Amino acid sequence: MRRIPLLRRPCGLSFASSPSVVVPRFSPQVSAPAASATATSTRCISSTPSSWSRAGRFGQPTLDREPEPTPASSLPPQQSTELSETKQLSAEESREVDDLVQSQYDEPTIPLPPRTRTWAPKQEEIKDSSYQPADTGEGLPELKSTNDWFSDDENWDATSQFVGFAPASDERVQDLRILEVLLRRAVVEALVMNQEGKGKSMANTWGMGGRNELVKALGLRVVVKEGGEAEVQGDVKGVLESLEEVDEQPPEEDEEDEEDKWKDEEPADMETEQEAIEEEIAPFVEPEEAAEMCKGWDKTWRNISLDDMGLKFAVTKRIYQLTGHRIHDYKLHSILTVGGLLKVLHSKPKPTKLFEFIEERKPELTNLPNVKVYSRRVTPIDKEKEVGRWKVIERELEKRGLPATGHSHLPKPNQRAWILGKA
Amino acid sequence: MPGSRRTQLRTPSVFLKLRNTQLALGLLSLKLSPGAHEEVTDSRAAPQGPAGGKDDDDINITKRCEIGNYEDNNNTTSYFLHKTNLKQYSAAGTAQALYEDYQNESESPNPNRNGSQFPGLPSPPPHRALESAKLAALHARLNLSERLPLQSLARCLVDSTADESLQFNNTHLAFLGRTIVNYHVSEYLVAKYPRLPMEIVFAAMKGYAGNRALYAIARQWGVEPAAAPGEEVDPGLLQFDVKKTGTELDAAVGYKRKELDKIIKFKFRRGISSRVVFDDEFGDTVSMGEHERILERQALEWRAQQGILSEDEMIQMEDPVPLEIETAEDRKFASYANFSRAVVGAVFLHSGREVAKNFVRSHVLSRRLDLEEMFSFSRPTRELAKLCQREGFERPVARILSETGRLSRTPVFVVGIYSGRDRLSEGWGPSIEHARLTAAMNGLKSWYLYSPGDDVRMPSETYDENAKPWTPLYVDMGEVIV
Questions:
Q1: SS3 (DSSP) at A230
Q2: Superfamily of domain B7-253+327-371
Q3: Alpha-carbon distance A384 to B298, whole Å?
Q4: Which pTM does this prediction carry?
Q5: Does residue B118 sit at the A interface (CB-CB below 8 Å)?
Q6: Where is this chain primarily localised (chain A) (predicted)?
Q7: Is B30 near chain A, with CB under 8 Å?
Q8: Residue pLDDT, tens place only, B356-378
Q9: Are B228 and A386 a contacting pair at CB < 8 A?
């Protein structure tokens, strides 16, 4: 089975803020073990539970009264902070880590029970004289039930998260200047692919690439001829390689650069580290910088024709991958040049809500003194509030111990469970 | 109804009332700021409210200062001192109810300001007036001038039972509007029907400008009530609370009768002359400090509970004076009427005297009131005879003018009353007596309802710059004393 390349970091709930989830860009078999050790330590391989390395794995009994944490539950930030500090792992531990990373590439992991069991020592075996067994359950930590085990996000690790091809709809690139820069990048890369005759690789998924790849692609010169045809000059091979390198090992320079980056920014605070990581994520360019770049190009590049369907699709697919904006097929018909595509990217989407439509197109309606336009549905509660009755209703319901809104006080419907056989 | 009475002050007192109205207008010199009410406060010597009254006002002011730039006057004691809910109650259960209310209040002081039961401001802040579609529609419907801002109209819609703060309710505007409305209505009546008996004048005043009439006017304007007052309510709705006592500033005319308690308790008759002197424009007793009385009663009950009553107080306890009960409906009418008056007051302040006069004429005086229906005579023949005697006519004689069906089941007699050779009036009826009485009543009505015409000049015309010199109006000496 073909290995699925991990091109983007997972964007699930619990991983949004965890730096430990950044996908390692390198394969475990790296030349310098020391470098790898530091790299792994700073890259926070999150699926490594510290308890694995510490006690459980080697069968040592733990004096900890807390139950052994599951592999995924060791993901909380406290663990990763621990790991993110530059700490020299032992050789054994680093090997384990490597194994784990390798296994990540092998197949997605599901939360499994710990491999070995541990038993709490009996009361007689405990040598600590200050230990007192508890009489009541008060104050003892409570375990979560297993009923909702799989619906709890904490029990799933990085590999179980869906990794999309493009940014999610709420993470789309919105800044117009950055969009232009990324369009230029997409066009250049598509032209590179076209030029070098790699018709087959056009259809493949291209590597995302980091800042370097962006700079490389933008560094190429584009010569536009009269008919709209364009030729790319410069380090075409380099760009091509970076596009095709998805399944292969990434080049060492990339790794070193990234290592350097990590070494340079070693904040004690985890939050700034997160911010640093987020900056390194696509699109790798600031709006002001993008604006400057745009000024540097002459306008002829907008005349590049996208008549060739293959080229057009390649560009739009790359745009989608980089920015998250999908160009509707309906619009593709009318896009004949890069300028047209830029216009479509820059265009504002139609307002989905009537209220927004009125605000934009017919503001005079909102300015009428005897007209009130609401941004959302006017509920019966809104009507009661306008008349002043709602507070009275709330007070009376409270007197009787009844809730004013919601269904949480009602029993949950169990028909679904019956149908599914109490599953 | 004209009964036996000695003197009757009529003409001078009416104009006394009018003059007092003018005084009132001068008193409330045209400010919407809270300073104006200071004089009235002092003259009424309202005592301090219960703990927290002053603070509540301060909190209120501070919160809204940024908007209205109102000054924080320390004299802004609220008129409404009694914070508990006054529900309807009969004389029998007053003591217990009052005592319980008093106790409840003292035990669990209301943390909310201005006596409201709910947190937040008691009425919407002024800036929200600009957001209300209902208010803007009302403003346009009434064709109010641009000079009258929406915030003023919103203030007109807040009754004193909704918000105690005089800076944010319509008490002052309603007072001003009341004087203006009553002034114009009274001059209209007196000028147009100079011989109208005083009782009818009082009734007609109520008919044109009383609470029920102004309620009807406000309803016709399309004013809707809020279910419960509060800051989240739409500013275009009229806010009032039927469970509370209003704190309308009492009329500029009138005095509190010394024997008011007995009048209420024993339902003493009040003669017309005394009404002219003491009572307000509608002939109703002026009871200043109603809420003070309530507080006194409460204190009495409490002292009774503590067992520290004096002898006089004990007597008072056993024989409690029934307080005037304001029903929920009365409160509703009063609140709407306050709104209507407040609008007139606001129009006067923002647009001027002339515009206010036109407003009153077009909304209040344009309504039809059948004065003929208001008369009720006893012994009309005697009265007519006295009238003729007073006026120097010949003795009235009733003569049958025509008749039909005397021996049938349905006779009709038409009787005419003659004074000498002149026929004063005629009337018909199923019997001669009936017809004679009807004729006498018609004669009296035709005398009392004499009118110099619709275009009679009114005293308020003299305020115009280009007014012609004033010639005295014809106003009669008064009713016939039987």
A1: strand
A2: Ribonuclease III domain (1.10.1520.10)
A3: 36
A4: 0.63
A5: yes
A6: mitochondrion
A7: no
A8: 999 999 999 999 999 999 999 99
A9: no
